Request: fold
Amino acid sequence: MKIGILSRKPELYSTRRLVEAAQQRGHEVRVIDPLRCYMNITSHNPSIHYRGEQLAGFDAIIPRIGASVTFYGTAVVRQFEMMNVYCVNESVAISRSRDKLRCLQLLARKGVGLPVTGFANSTMYTQDLINIVGGAPLVIKLLEGTQGIGVVLAETHQAAESVIEAFRGLNANILVQEFIKEAKGSDIRCLVVGGKVVASMMRKSKEGEFRSNLHRGGTAAPVRISPEERETVVRAAKIMGLNVAGVDILRSNHGAVVMEVNSSPGLEGIEKATRKDISMKIIEFVEKHAQPGKTSTRGNG
Reply:
């Protein structure tokens, strides 16, 4: 097979491991920087050009679209879909998961457990918004934040008001969520491939920090999840329409709650923590499912 990996940096751990796994299985693989692509958008013969050449003959595309290039990156994925190339994660699914508010609304509509979450445009009713999520302490998140950036724990009512007003003063879109105290600064990252949880790790925040992201100095260890947690994780990925996803959950007093669904989950932390070859599982999934035109959207939406 000829597999393309959409990634801005071939040297990144996740990209490099996917290349190695594909080559071990005897596939031709090429890393493509989505921002270097340019497209001929036409009804009869859509095409993608890259560094002066036309890209053709690909059996499958594995998108590794960074949050900062979501708009253009998903446009490139959509163009591949129009060309009937199989995409592991489709453009619509990536867009759904990247919009944190849309993601939470879709999950809530399907009855998936979530932290109590508030969203508002005006600061006129900040006190009521804080009360909706149960008061302080609470978590305030930028909609566009990644890897724990733009996430603030407000420990008092006054602090929450100040942070919300400051963010809104910058015209930033924010979510306000209840603080799951019983999680004790830890969350669980589950890797889903093809509707199955292939690995899970518990991430714990460092001393004095409530964010458990490994980029923020958190630590990780393999963890066994319950059947109920497994069902929640698989459902979340399916609702987003993602074949490969990182689903973050917290263990609360009322069961597992989903914090985020990631369409381009990093593989380094979870492969090293669990000693599982997730990259190979992704390539094996591609082998089983990559067929011309096998896409539910075909570039629609």
Q: What stands out?
A: The chain has nine helices and 16 strands. The first strand starts at residue 2 and ends at 6. The chain has three domains: 2-95, 117-179, 182-283. The chain has a mean pLDDT of 90.
